[in-house]
């Protein structure tokens, strides 16, 4: 059930695929011709096939669920690599905060 605003009207929040589902989708669109064909015709059914929760699918933007011709497989390979590498970049660039306590030091 969709959340309601103050006037009691249903509010549909746009949902997003999890990182795990995004990577799986990009992989399938880069490598699986049968899945690509199904996704082009019925994106919602293809997402359900790969385990995306119904609640997520029904709250996606309509433009995400419209039938469309897909880009070539190479673009999905690159997108998958970029998304996979993005997480690594975040981890590598993370600075762990430290606390320096200096009780009674004269220096």
What are the salient characteristics of this protein?
disordered N terminus; elongated; mainly alpha; single chain
Helix and strand arrangement:
Blueprint: H1 19-31, H2 33-41, H3 43-49, H4 54-58, H5 62-65, H6 73-92
Helix pairs in contact: 1-2, 1-6, 2-3
Question: Briefly, what is this?
Answer:
The chain is mainly α. The protein is built from 6 helices and no strands. The protein has one domain.
Q: Could you walk me through the main structural features you see in this protein, from its secondary elements to its overall organization?
A:
Helix content is 54%, strand content 0%. It has one domain. It has helices at residues 19-31, 33-41, 43-49, 54-58, 62-65, 73-92. It is mostly helical. It is elongated. It contains 6 helices and no strands. Mean pLDDT is 80; it is low at 1-11. The termini are far apart.
What structural category characterises the helix and strand content? mainly alpha
- Beta percentage is under 5%
How much helix, percentage-wise, in residues? Answer: 40-55%
Question: How many domains is the backbone divided into?
Answer: 1
General form: elongated
What string, H for helix and E for strand, traces the elements in order? HHHHHH
Mean pLDDT: 80
Low-confidence stretches: 1-11
């Amino acid at each position: 059930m969709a959340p309601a605003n103050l006037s009691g009207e249903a509010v549909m929040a746009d949902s997003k695929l999890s990182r795990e589902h995004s990577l799986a989708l990009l992989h399938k669109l880069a490598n699986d011709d049968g899945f690509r064909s199904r996704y082009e015709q019925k994106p919602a059914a293809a997402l359900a096939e790969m385990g995306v929760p119904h609640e997520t699918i029904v709250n996606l933007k309509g433009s995400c669920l419209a039938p469309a011709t897909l880009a070539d497989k190479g673009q999905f390979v690159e997108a998958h690599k970029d998304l996979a590498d993005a997480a690594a970049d975040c981890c590598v660039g993370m600075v762990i905060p430290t606390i320096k306590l200096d009780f009674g030091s004269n220096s």
